[in-house]
Write a structure and sequence with these properties.
The protein is of the alpha+beta class and about 325 residues long. Helix content is about 40%, strand content about 25%. The model has no long low-confidence stretch (mean pLDDT about 95). The chain binds (3R)-3-hydroxy-3-methyl-5-(phosphonooxy)pentanoic acid. (3R)-3-hydroxy-3-methyl-5-(phosphonooxy)pentanoic acid binds next to helix 4 and helix 5.
C-alpha cells in the first residue's frame, strides 16, 4: 500500500464570528502560511492492527489503542473506519505535523481532523469527497467546541473563501481584487468553547439585545461579501472596524485585542478586528502592499511575537 499524505491550510474569520452560531452569515478564508499535514505509511511487517501515531507538535508518540476513546485523534480514526465499514485498519504509522499554533483561532484542531480524514480514507482505498470530509470533520469539531457552527472545518476542507451560514449548503464566492491581511497573535490562549458559552449565557439573559447585535453583524457580513466581490477594499476595512465594535459590546474582546487593533489602525491598516472566539487569540488587520510591513512592525513592537501576512484570493491552493 503506498504512503499517503495530505496537507491543508489554517484559517481566519474575516467577519461574523459569534453571530454565526446564531444563524447569521460569516466569512472565513484559508491561511496558506500555516498548514497541517497527515502522512500515513503502511507497516506490513508490524503486528497486524498496530497503528502508530506520531505528532511532534503535541508531543504524542503512541499507538491507537493507548489513546482514550474520547481523544479527538482516536475519534477521527475510528469515525473514518466506521464510515467505510472497515473493521481492521492495516498496520501503519500516522504522522501528524502542523505549523498552525494551537488554541489561537487559526483552526488547528479542524485542520488536523480534515488532513487525517482525507489521508486515512485514501489509505483505506476510498478517498472521501470534500463533502464527506467536511461532514466527518464537523463531528470531530463537536468534541473540541461542543456547539461549533461548522465554519472552521468548512473553510479548511474547501480551502477557499466561504460565505457560511450554519446548516446551509456551502457557498464560496469570488474575490474581485486580491487583498492582504496581517494576522497578529496576542499569545493569550483563549478556549473558543468558553467564549461561546459565555455569549450564550448573556444571550439567554437578554435575547432582545443580543439578537439585535447579531442582526447588525449579519448585515455587516452581507456588505463585506459585496465589498470583497467588487474589490472595494476600503469599504471592507470600515466594515471590519464596525464588526469589532459589536464584538466589544458583547464582551468578547479584551484590552490586549483592543490595543493591537488600534495600533494596527494607527499604523495605516484600512481596518482591524479580533478574529475567532476572542478574549485572546488573534487579531487581523487589512493592509496594503505599501503599509503591510509598517503595520506588522508596529504590532511586533507591541509584543506580538509573530505576524503572518496572507493574501486572499479565489484560487484553491495546490499542496503537493
Ligand atoms: O476561535 P475560532 O477561530 O475557532 O472561531 C470561533 C468562531 C465562533 O463563531 C466564535 C464559534 C463558531 O463555532 O463559529
Amino acid at each position: 500500500m503506498p504512503a499517503i499524505a495530505t496537507t491543508v491550510p489554517g484559517k481566519i474569520i474575516l467577519v461574523g464570528e459569534h453571530a454565526v452560531v446564531y444563524g447569521r452569515p460569516a466569512i472565513a478564508v484559508p491561511v496558506m502560511q500555516v498548514q497541517a499535514r497527515a502522512a500515513i505509511t503502511a507497516n506490513p511487517r508490524a503486528k497486524p492492527g498496530t497503528i502508530r501515531i506520531q505528532s511532534a507538535n503535541i508531543g504524542l508518540e503512541t499507538i491507537l489503542d493507548e489513546l482514550s476513546e474520547e481523544h479527538p485523534i482516536r475519534k477521527t480514526i475510528t469515525s473514518v473506519a466506521d464510515a467505510l465499514h472497515v473493521d481492521h485498519i492495516p498496520a501503519c504509522t500516522i504522522r501528524l505535523i502542523s505549523t498552525i499554533p494551537v488554541a489561537s483561532g487559526l483552526g488547528s484542531g479542524a485542520a488536523i481532523a480534515v488532513a487525517l480524514i482525507r489521508s486515512l480514507s485514501a489509505f483505506l482505498g476510498h478517498p472521501f469527497s470534500d463533502d464527506q470530509v467536511n461532514a466527518l470533520a464537523f463531528e470531530i469539531e463537536k468534541i473540541h467546541h461542543l456547539t461549533p457552527s461548522g465554519l472552521d472545518n468548512t473553510v479548511i476542507t474547501y480551502a477557499k473563501p466561504v460565505y457560511f451560514i450554519k446548516d446551509q449548503p456551502l457557498e464560496t464566492f469570488q474575490v474581485g481584487k486580491p487583498f492582504l491581511i496581517a494576522i497578529g497573535d496576542t499569545r493569550i490562549s483563549s478556549p473558543t468553547a468558553l467564549a461561546v458559552a459565555e455569549v450564550h449565557r448573556s444571550w439567554k439573559a437578554d435575547k432582545a439585545f443580543y439578537e439585535r447585535v447579531f442582526d447588525s453583524i449579519g448585515g455587516i457580513v452581507i456588505k463585506a461579501r459585496q465589498a470583497i466581490e467588487s474589490g472595494d477594499i476600503e469599504l471592507l476595512g470600515l466594515l471590519m472596524n464596525e464588526n469589532h465594535e459589536w464584538l466589544r459590546r458583547i464582551n468578547v474582546s479584551s484590552p490586549d485585542l483592543d490595543h493591537l487593533v488600534s495600533v494596527a489602525r494607527m499604523a495605516g491598516a484600512l481596518g482591524a478586528k479580533l478574529s475567532g472566539g476572542g478574549r485572546g487569540g488573534n487579531m487581523i488587520a487589512l493592509v496594503t502592499p505599501e503599509n503591510a510591513e509598517r503595520v506588522a512592525q508596529a504590532l511586533r513592537t507591541e509584543g506580538v511575537m509573530r505576524t503572518i501576512l496572507t493574501k486572499i484570493d479565489s484560487t484553491r491552493p495546490l499542496f503537493e
